[in-house]
Design brief:
Helix content: 10-25%
Shape: globular
CATH topology: Nucleoside Triphosphate Pyrophosphohydrolase
CATH architecture: Alpha-Beta Complex
Distance between the termini: 32 Å
Largest sheet: 8 strands, mixed
CATH superfamily: Nucleoside Triphosphate Pyrophosphohydrolase
Number of domains: 1
Number of helices: 4
């Protein structure tokens, strides 16, 4: 197996070959804080639909964690996401969860996710209630990522790290848990057949202007795994 992967530089230009409209949306009754707690409490050896890129030398992989923050709003849970700044070496300009590489002083994956969320967007740990984890996801940039799912209690304030984060925004969980919004892209790159998911969200930016947030790649894949977990 190859140990390197070609990177997709302009994902929005990659052809869409279809959506998953034939799959059911997650029942709204399963998208409440109480229902999510019960689902994670009952989870046993669940296997994710998408485990990411494979075939890497294990010695070349780095451990990382992301926080999947589910904000409790009056109209339902919303997923807090970030848009990364354009000058970063990895994933510049992409939509991501708060997160990053495991540091030596981190006690576990949860500690990494909470620390990174504090550093990147200023999300105080006191507002965060971790309810579970999803299976690891391996990225093309050779990170083995643990998604840590948490409920976030308003009110809270954010303080973005201007070097890493250009913007933070929220997307309704119900939108992301509806496969009709999951678009499939496929193309050939350097002799390799590549596929990925996208979940474009039409929202408002900090100035109140309409903007399309192109959620794709690892972030979309982990959200799809969350969909599979809540659907089963």
């Amino acid at each position: 197996m190859p140990t390197t992967r070609p990177r997709i530089l302009d994902p929005q230009a990659v052809p869409v070959i279809g959506t998953d409209h034939h799959l059911p949306a997650v029942d709204p009754a399963r998208l409440t804080p109480e229902a999510l707690r019960r689902r994670f409490e009952s989870a046993k050896d669940w296997q994710a639909d998408i485990d990411g890129d494979t075939g890497f030398d294990p010695e070349g992989l780095s451990a990382a964690s992301v926080l999947v923050p589910l904000v409790q709003r009056p109209d339902g849970l919303r997923v807090l996401l970030t848009r990364r700044t354009e000058h970063l070496r990895d994933h510049a300009g992409q939509i991501s969860f708060p997160g990053g590489r495991v540091e030596q002083d981190d006690a576990d994956a949860v500690a990494t996710a909470l620390r990174e969320a504090e550093e990147e967007v200023g999300l105080a740990r006191e507002a965060v209630d971790v309810i579970g984890q999803l299976p690891h996801y391996t990225t093309v940039t050779r990170y083995v990522v643990t998604p840590v799912v948490a409920l976030v209690r308003p009110p809270f304030s954010l303080q973005l790290d201007a070097f890493e984060v250009a913007e933070a925004f929220e997307v309704p969980l119900s939108f992301l848990m509806t496969p009709a919004h999951h678009r499939r892209h496929e193309f050939d790159l350097q002799g390799q057949r590549r596929q990925f998911l996208s979940m474009p969200w039409q929202g408002l930016d900090e100035q109140g202007a309409s903007r399309t947030y192109f959620i794709w790649g690892a972030t979309a894949a982990m959200l799809r795994n969350l969909y599979g977990f809540l659907r089963d």
